[in-house]
Write a structure and sequence with these properties.
Layout: H1 6-15, H2 22-43, H3 74-79, E1 84-85, E2 88-89
Antiparallel strand pairs: 1-2
């Protein structure tokens, strides 16, 4: 089993801007070790003769052509706007530059 030490978890936590107590560190260490062990098992599988999959299933996407059903005229769309600037919607400022 692959072991993950506290130093590695501390570094990952720091990079992720996360903080863990001792109990959480132990749980994360066990979970990550299990995940890496599973990945190692997958790497050791014999895949000779197995064709790689592009998708999980063999079905392809069934795309349809875009269809324009109904649409508002520019005048009708702008008529609902309380503030407009010519042919554009005008919105109040939502972000500060602080």
């Amino acid at each position: 089993m692959v072991k993950i030490n506290r130093e590695a978890i501390s570094k990952l936590a720091s990079l992720s801007k996360l903080k863990f107590n001792d109990n959480e560190m132990d749980l994360i260490s066990k979970d990550l070790s299990k995940m890496l062990d599973f990945i190692n098992q997958l790497e050791n599988l014999d895949t000779d003769g197995v064709e790689p999959l592009i998708h999980i299933n063999e079905e392809a996407n069934n795309w349809r052509e875009d269809q324009i059903d109904g649409m508002l005229s520019q005048k009708a769309a702008l008529s609902n706007s309380p503030i407009k600037d010519g042919t554009y919607f005008k919105l109040p400022k939502v972000l500060d530059k602080d």
